[in-house]
User: Fold this.
Amino acid sequence: MTERAKILSIDDEPSNHEVIQNLLGGEYELAFAQDGQRGIKLVEVFSPDIVLLDVDMPQMNGLEVCKQIRQQPFGDNLPILFVSTKSSPEERVAGYQAGGDDFLFRPLDEIEVVNKLKIKLASKYKTNSLEKASSDATKAALAAINGAAELGFIITLLRESFACNTVDDLGDKVFNTLTCYDLDGSLLLRFDGKNHFYPAESESNLKQKEKQALQKAHLSGRVFEYAGIAIFSTPIVSLLIRRMPEDEERAGRLKEHLAILVEGVEARLKGLENEHRRKIEKQLLEQSIELTHGCLEELKHGHHQQRVETARILSDTAEDMEELFLRLGLDESQETQLLSLIERAEEKTDETFRESDKLQHQFEEIELHLNSLLASKVR
Assistant:
């Protein structure tokens, strides 16, 4: 059932109210006031769509009533039709100056009254529709502006996160962003196998339940809400907002933006983990190179000392054999046999040194390979 339009009649003559009742009672919802003061109160309480206002009333005439209605917040765009027995130009000008929209003259003509009411109502509805559209457009524009500003906070965080070299730097950046949103909460970053809570200075003050909620948040999905609390999470990042805005439109925008924030923080945290892992690998490589280089130097030194010592031993052995040949009185064939034994020993010794040279070369190749790996990690 269509809601009937409401009309308020303000007139000090009961007979005039009867006329209005007979003309309009079947089509409109009517209310009546016997004087100006009651009429003004009824405008606020009854919220009429149109006011029919008698000009000639005692105490407060229609012109004054109209002025006072127009001064009220609820009376600015309310159609007011004066009802009068006078139709002079001066009367009409005074009515329009007081804020009236039109005139009806007694005796009332039913066709004229009905047509004017329909025209005024149609105009009022159209004005209300335009005002609502304008209001909706303004709200949408403001929402877009606010949304762009809020999204700008996220973009700033993501851009500045690349300058964060530690997990603590990243945690501080997140809370600076929450301050821009005028939000309060706590943050968990999982890094290098450990849980890092933020803000760091208040970690000891975080309730155990809140810590547990942050630690288990990734099991409840990307976004979890309960009693005004919202938790945004990934496997390594959990952000808890203690009180989301009551404005549903802003709360909806913030959910989208904070979800993006958490995903961006996760990406940067993974970057920090990769950088941390490469740093450790670089340190291990440097230690391996240093150890390999030390072993190689010791091998070179030992090899050199062994060569010198072996050469000395062989030289001394040859001299001793020459003296022994003289004392023993060996013939030429016996001397040849002994000398061949010494030569074979020298050849075996040389072969052993060649194998040592191969091993030394292998160590040098290992050292070169480790240095190549280290150079690639630095890049």
